[in-house]
Amino acid sequence: GVSHSFVHDALPMRVVFGPGRLAELGQEVERLGLRRVLVLGTPEQEATLRATADGLDGRAAGVFPEARQHVPAAIAAAAADRARELGADGCVAVGGGSSVGLGKAVALRHGLPVVAVPTTYAGSEMTPIWGLTEDGEKRTGRDRAVLPRTVVYDPELTRSLPVGLSVTSGLNAVAHAVEGLWAPDGTPITAVMAEEGARSLLAALPAVVERPDDLDARSGALQGAWLCGAVLGATTMSLHHKLCHVLGGSFDLPHAETHAVVLPHVVAHNGPSAPAAVAALGRALGVDPGAAAGALADRARELGAPTSLAAIGMPRDGLPRVVEAVLAQPYANPAPVTRESLTALLEAAY
Ligand code: NAD
After folding, report:
1. What is the pLDDT of residue 2?
2. Which CATH class is domain 159-349?
3. GO molecular function of the protein, one example (predicted)?
């Protein structure tokens, strides 16, 4: 069960949540004493970035719409240079993990505070984890300086998130919760956040698929994503995140889809060694603990998520490389991970 000996280190962040709250972004920027922020995000969301900058009442120094998945180091350097040229005193990152990751990279280099406006369920905005990719290798680290000072969650912004990405991004968030439930440094607070985050997301996703425009469904999903992201920020991730990191980094598989495919297999693998975690996941899914892994796989399929690594572009002959890379790195995990068990897990996911 949850340990009765723990350290809980609360992260100092302000969270503003609700439909229409984007209108308060200017006040939130002002509250931090910022006068010239650089608005960052992906090219696909440039219109949203420009509208966001226009809504800042003269507090936007510019827009940098060049964020890319996994934060390429050259783009991070270009964003940091732009921030310096414009005399920016902070960044507002609008978008998913790629946009927030770029804001964090600028914070890492120049120490500029980040305000995040998330539009997916990835949860990066709640963590002090940064990532940078150079020469095909992704480095990550933890630094309080990259933790956003304020996060403005406006579910209206998620209405345009395509259904497929809503589902896989939602399952990516559920993965944070699941690994938080069996994390070596979980606490009573992270356990509550994880179970409620998973419950809220899993309850909302079917409605999101049916009615992507439904603000209640979108609000439930985003609220769940916030809690799951907070769990990611507060605990140490295990086998699932390690596997997805290796798969994504070595074979350039899409981030959220990879999480969606792999999660039920890791739950099946770890479940017997993590009874309290599967009991909490079972409650979140409304099933018995023993049925949690199967129910999660069923739910992902019903929601239309991809169900195999083959379907998302993984080459079969790459599986042994993944096994070796995962075995080579030490990390906490509730169940022992052997060459045999990991190979079987990956074959099943493939
Ligand atoms: P993403 O940020 O790459 O976004 C995917 C696509 O969806 C982009 O084209 C984006 O423009 C578009 N999009 C986002 N929100 C939209 C919306 N509301 N409407 C329409 N289009 C929208 O994807 P992601 O899954 O959010 O993030 C993945 C990245 O984040 C990975 O690189 C991952 O490693 C990183 N990540 C980091 C952390 C951390 O703590 N550091 C946590 C989670 C994810």
Report:
1. 53
2. mainly alpha
3. metal ion binding
Taking residues 335-343, report their average pLDDT.
96
Name the closest-CA residue to atom 2, ligand 1: 96
Tell me how far the alpha carbon of residue 97 lies from the centroid of ligand 1, in angstroms: 4
CATH architecture of 21-153: 3-Layer(aba) Sandwich (3.40)
Of 11, 98, 158, which is best to mutate to test ligand 1, by the most ligand atoms within 8 angstroms of its C-beta?
98
Tokens representing residue 12 in the block = 């100092």
Beta strands in 110-172 (DSSP E): 114-118, 129-134, 137-142, 150-153
Query: Which atom of ligand 1 is the closest one to the Cα of 68?
Result: 3
What is the domain partition of the chain in residue ranges?
21-153, 159-349
pLDDT score recorded for residue 191? 97
> Are residues 266 and 276 in contact, defined by beta-carbon separation less than 8 angstroms?
no
Report CA(118)–ligand 1 centroid distance (Å): 9
Residues pairing with 38 in the sheet: 62, 91
Model-wide pTM > 0.95: yes
Answer whether residue 45 shows pLDDT above 60. Answer: yes
Q: Are 129 and 100 in contact (CB under 8 A)?
A: no
Q: Do domains 21-153 and 159-349 have the same CATH topology?
A: no
ipTM over 0.85: yes
| Residue where the block lists tokens 């949690």 | 292
